[in-house]
Write a structure and sequence with these properties.
The protein is of the alpha/beta class. The protein has a single domain, classed as Undecaprenyl pyrophosphate synthetase (3-Layer(aba) Sandwich). It contains 9 helices and 6 strands. The chain has a 6-stranded parallel β-sheet, sandwiched between helices. It starts with 7 loop residues before the first strand and ends in a 9-residue tail after the last helix.
Length: about 230
């Protein structure tokens, strides 16, 4: 029997700081483990093996600006190094990288790295990795409406509105995974996740590896998706 596989998996990687605290580390240790190059590649390789074509990860939300300046600086440098560490792998594996979210508030060195990575991989299509930075679902919708107004557009229908979203080039997520035990989306892909299957796990993101991803996809394959029909 054919198994249903989510084409686009979106991940809310929660629990980094709690994982570190429970193990007696500084909170930043959880972020370091979560952005490990080998760990990320193993997760992507499992996704590809399963048949997933798009993986989106929420790296920094619009609400995360409320964190301390020290933690934000640490996170931005860590994310920049993470992307640079994945560059060779992305080229070797023909992976396209996209940034979802705002660029106007991020540090210039990080923005420059993002733009460079996007341009270098824009012709690839074997696998797609979306990193959501300074991203929030409500903010994305507001920015889309502002763009429509600036361009003097008429009141858009759903299909037309989609063209103004950060995700305009990719399919809606079939599955949204949140690690760390919280059972809410916190505004992640508010417009796009209307019919996504939701999967919540108690596992903190530093411990969410290939086996946990496979478990989530297997759960997806057992669900019936009717999209409002019979």
């Amino acid at each position: 029997m054919d198994r249903k596989i989510p084409i686009h998996v979106a991940i809310i990687p929660d629990g980094n700081r709690r994982w570190a605290k429970e193990k007696g580390f500084e909170g930043t240790k959880g972020h370091e483990v979560s952005t490990g190059k080998d760990r990320t590649i193993a997760l992507f390789e499992e996704a590809r093996k399963l048949g997933v074509k798009y993986v989106s990860i929420w790296g920094f939300s619009t609400e995360n600006w409320n964190r301390s300046d020290m933690e934000k600086r640490f996170l931005f440098k860590l994310i920049k190094d993470w992307m640079e560490g994945l560059r060779d792998y992305a080229h070797d594996s023909k992976i396209r990288f996209r940034h979802l979210g705002r660029k106007d508030r991020l540090p210039k060195p990080l923005v420059d790295a993002i733009v460079k990575f996007e341009r270098e991989t824009e012709k690839y299509s074997d696998f797609n990795f979306q990193l959501c930075l300074d991203y929030g679902g409500r903010d994305e919708i507001v920015r889309a409406m502002q763009k429509i107004i600036r361009e003097g557009g008429k009141e858009p229908g759903e299909e037309e509105f989609f063209k103004y979203l950060d995700t305009k080039e990719i399919p809606d997520p079939d599955m949204v995974i949140r690690t760390g035990g919280e059972k809410r989306l916190s505004g992640f892909m508010s417009f796009q996740s209307a019919y996504a299957e939701l999967y919540f796990t108690e596992v903190y993101f530093p411990d969410f590896g290939p086996a946990e991803l496979r478990k989530a996809v297997e759960e997806f394959s057992r669900r019936a998706r009717r999209f409002g029909g019979d």
